[in-house]
UniProtKB/TrEMBL annotation:
This is 25S rRNA (uridine-N(3))-methyltransferase BMT5-like domain-containing protein. GO terms for cellular component: cytoplasm. GO terms for biological process: rRNA base methylation. InterPro entries: BMT5-like.
Length: 225
């Protein structure tokens, strides 16, 4: 027969297991989701999620830049990456959002959430210029095509956070997605304050480390059609 102390110990252990399994939400994202973050700048968004969840073992965070390029662009990126990795995240460099489904590691994974915050090719022309809009539309189209291949079939979602209004509405995110078999099921206002520590950056040119002003923005959520 078990003693009272043994029963109490067993109860405590069960309680600890329950605490470990408890689901934590930050904004649209859960500690129970396997999350792929694309086009991360200084990795501050990834780190916000990791800190909120208490772990980053469910996060794969990627950037198109090399580690050397990142250190030159962002003053605090080395510390952010170090903490992410210490918390268990996979951090990948040189990942092209328009070809990521062919990446040697990513192609073996399937994700509940694939997130691209404020995609942009860089300021090659004025923002409202037709050529600039075309380049950004090509970036988003390539991302959506690749993300679709990496999405879990059940409850999988692709999120693109994006400015609202012209010329950004001319990117036609919902139409691009529809053409490749994705459905826009929700558009939610994006509030940076929901993600403490997130510091959007300009990411391109001499002012890469300066703040990127979001203004009115939204998260577009797509599912498989």
């Amino acid at each position: 027969m078990s003693s009272a102390s043994e029963e109490g110990s067993s109860s405590d252990e069960d309680h600890e297991v329950e605490e470990v399994k408890k689901e934590i939400w930050k904004g649209h994202y859960s500690s129970a989701h396997k999350i792929l973050l694309v086009g991360e700048g200084d990795f501050s968004f990834s780190l916000c999620l990791a800190r909120s969840f208490g772990s980053a073992r469910n996060i794969v965070a990627t950037t198109v830049d090399t580690h050397q390029q990142l250190v030159k662009k962002y003053s605090n990126v080395a510390e952010n990456v170090r903490e992410l990795q210490d918390r268990g995240s996979v951090v990948l460099y040189g990942v092209d959002a328009t070809a990521m489904s062919n990446h040697f590691f990513i192609t073996t994974q399937r994700f509940h959430r694939i997130v691209y915050n404020f995609p942009h090719v860089g300021f090659r022309f004025p923002e409202a210029n037709g050529c600039q809009i075309k380049l950004n539309k090509q970036l988003v189209k390539g991302f959506l095509k690749n993300a679709k291949m990496l999405l879990k079939k059940e409850n999988g979602e692709i999120h693109v956070s994006h400015k609202v209004g012209e010329p950004y509405d001319s990117w036609n995110l919902d139409k691009k997605a529809e053409k490749i078999g994705l459905v826009l099921y929700e558009r939610s206002p994006f509030f940076k304050k929901m993600y403490p520590g997130y510091a959007p950056k300009r990411a391109h040119g001499a002012a890469a480390d300066e703040a990127f002003k979001l203004g009115e923005s939204a998260t577009y959520k797509f599912r498989l059609g």
